Known about the structure:
The chain contains 16 helices and ten strands. Helix 11 (222-232) packs across helix 13 (246-253). It starts with 5 loop residues before the first helix and ends in a 7-residue tail after the last helix. Helix content is 46%, strand content 13%. A five-stranded parallel sheet has the order 5-6-4-7-8, sandwiched between helices. Strands 1-2-3 form a three-stranded antiparallel sheet. A two-stranded antiparallel ribbon has the order 9-10. The protein is an alpha/beta fold. The site of adenosine-3'-5'-diphosphate (A3P) has 22 residues, from helix 3, helix 7 and helix 14.
Amino acid sequence: EPQNGEEGKVKFEDKLKTLDKGDFWTPPVNLYRYEGFWFFPDFLEGIMLAQEQFKSHPNDIILCTAPKAGTTWIKALAFAILSRHGYDFSSNPLLTTISHECVRYIEVDYIRNWTKRDPEIPLLATHMPYTSLPKSVMDSGCKIVYVGRDPKAVLVSLWHFLLKLGRKDKVQFPIEKAHELFCEGVSSYGPYWDHALGYWKASLERPNNVLFFKYEDMKRDPCSHVKRLAEFLGTPFSGEEEADAAVEKVIKLCSFETLSKLEVNKTGHIDSPSMPLANNLFFREGESKDWVNHLSKEMAERIDRISVEKFKDFGLSF
Ligand code: A3P
């Protein structure tokens, strides 16, 4: 059972006071630096709880992403793959439930509302950096799937998301300001580059445990990614399923076009630690190159320079 009562709250408040604080994105809520990354306090509380209490099972599958890198999509894909024998494609829960409710975040809701894992669909999700994952995730040998995305697209998506949350407008918080902070590494779960690199290195060191996908590659070639994902999750598509176009059906069910038009995703809400969030916040453009419409050439070049500098020794690029 989780241990988070009044005592836990006080302990957390005390810890928070010892951490570096960076405001900027959504004052009055600050970001705090913990283990080299920046977090909003409600997420950080969940991370600290998870680090103390989360018990990973060997058959867990943890979907890891930085915010705005493709979480909603990978949750839907993994859920559709693992649930395909229990539901046909016309009655899949994804048609009536946003993928964030089908696959829970460890630090947001799982750790606070301890529920049993479904042995058929043992999916959990997290935005935690690799180096901050609870120790039991390393020890259990469970599988991890990471989705990384071009940092330029992550920034633009994050900026729109936060504007839509309504705490600021474009005049108070222009993209130039968001860009500056993002490049400095001061963004939710940032520095983004370190986040992606942590999982990239892990995927090279532990390829049987950690699968690394890129959003742009998934958009370009969803078919081979869905097949690879199914194999990695231990449920490859059979010849018969392939002949029955099951791969294409998963892709269609989870596509931006399908999901963004569903009633539940147009009008529904999910709980988040601080407030309910409209499901439609998770569906904006769903494209790889929309950033060109929002970043100047100089802004894009600065991000690319940082990417080269951070990633060049490790063979990662977007
Ligand atoms: P854009 O803002 O660039 O459109 P996350 O799910 O990690 O919060 O990321 C949200 C981003 O993924 C948004 O990007 C959103 O539009 C996009 N997205 C959501 N569902 C998607 C899907 N099924 N396929 C592709 N992209 C999707």
